[in-house]
Write a structure and sequence with these properties.
alpha+beta, about 15% strand, 3 helices, about 100 residues, disordered N terminus
């Protein structure tokens, strides 16, 4: 089995820093079988993206899928003070009637 090396630099945006520290860019290396490499190369050519872009997209998606929802940055946001809301007329607004 032939092993191909794929060298790329990945900058992952939107990922929370590890232990609250800002991380510098990192280089990630992996090995693919010849068949995996050919499939990856064919798909990137069809999508007209680079190998680097495809592998970065795969890593970001894998991280997203592996992150427990309670650690998702979206759910770590705190509500902002602002205009109070009143949903008492919501049914009337949406459906033209009130309950």
């Amino acid at each position: 089995m032939k092993i191909f090396h794929v060298w790329s630099m990945f900058i992952l945006h939107g990922i929370l820093p590890f232990n609250g520290e800002l991380l510098s860019d990192k280089v990630v290396q992996t090995e693919l079988s010849g068949g995996e490499y050919i499939q990856l190369k064919d798909l990137t050519q069809k999508k007209k993206i680079t190998l680097k872009e495809a592998v970065r997209e795969a890593i970001v998606e894998w991280i997203r899928l592996q992150t427990p929802i309670e650690e998702d940055p979206l759910f770590l946001l705190q509500p902002r003070e602002g205009t109070p809301t009143d949903s008492s007329d919501l049914d009337k607004t949406l459906y033209g009637k009130s309950q």
